[in-house]
Amino acid sequence: MKRFDGRRVLVTGGGRGIGRAVALRLASEGAQVVAVDVDPDGLSETARLGDVHTLVGDVSSESSVSDFVSSALDHLGGLDVLVNNAAVLHAAHTHSTPLDLWDRIIAVNLTGLFLVTRAALPSLVETGNGVVVTIGSTAGSFTHPYLSAYAATKGGVQAFTRAVAAEYAHQGLRAVTIQPAGIDTGMPPRVGETLPEGADIMLLARNLSLLTGGALVPADRVAGVVAMVASDDGRHITGTEIRVDGGAHA
């Protein structure tokens, strides 16, 4: 018997990178998986690679979230695990970060997390052992220059996750944040492609994996940790963060 036999899973940002890796990993372990993304082409590739049902949706839109969560629940017949992965990233000097960029990052990374979790909570609580796993970042706990907006959202992810974990623990719900760093997330654009003029690349060196000499780690490394946390193997893990960074912040 596989760890996720009979488990129903919704993964946001499932069209690439960590989201795709998580969707494929949990499906391979027996889960019924619905993957959501704004990118239909990415979703098509995810579905081609594994037994994953896909839905196009935007986590930053309340109406879109209502629609795709409802469709996912109809398809799955309920929900046992929610994996909040959808996010955007863009580097900039804080003093020249335009408000629309700040608002966009907040809307996807933090408001999107709230909207999807809020919509999914009744079904997760109904199971008596629901799990919310959110992909955060080491940026929520450690220095990440030129990423003030992104870091602010990831700090919020941790606080939100801990609050949910405490609030619903008596109903059997667990909530955990995974903090990757140095992972090939597939998130466009990459940090290096958006670094502002005059950025000191040495300030970013502290975020590189000790185990890979700075090379990006495949997203399936994070997927394996998510699979452990979301399964019964992680049944006593809640209200906390787990770093997957190859020792970058040791």
Biggest beta sheet summary: 7 strands, parallel
Total number of distinct structural domains: 1
Oligomer category: single chain
Average pLDDT, rounded to a whole number, is 91
Report, as a whole number of angstroms, the end-to-end distance: 36 Å
Enzyme class: oxidoreductase
Family: Belongs to the short-chain dehydrogenases/reductases (SDR) family.
InterPro entries: NAD(P)-bd_dom_sf (IPR036291), Sc_DH/Rdtase_CS (IPR020904), SDR_fam (IPR002347)
Pfam family, one: adh_short
What does this structure look like?
Its EC number is 1.1.1.-. One of its GO terms (molecular function) is oxidoreductase activity. Pfam families: adh_short. This protein has one domain (8-244): NAD(P)-binding Rossmann-like Domain (Rossmann fold). It contains seven helices and seven strands. The protein has helices spanning 17-28, 40-49, 62-76, 99-127, 148-168, 191-194, 220-230; strands spanning 8-12, 32-37, 52-56, 81-84, 131-135, 174-180, 240-244. Helix 5 (148-168) links the parallel strand 5 and strand 6. Helix 1 (17-28) crosses helix 7, helix 3 (62-76) runs parallel beside helix 4 (99-127) and helix 4 runs parallel beside helix 5. 48% of the residues are buried.
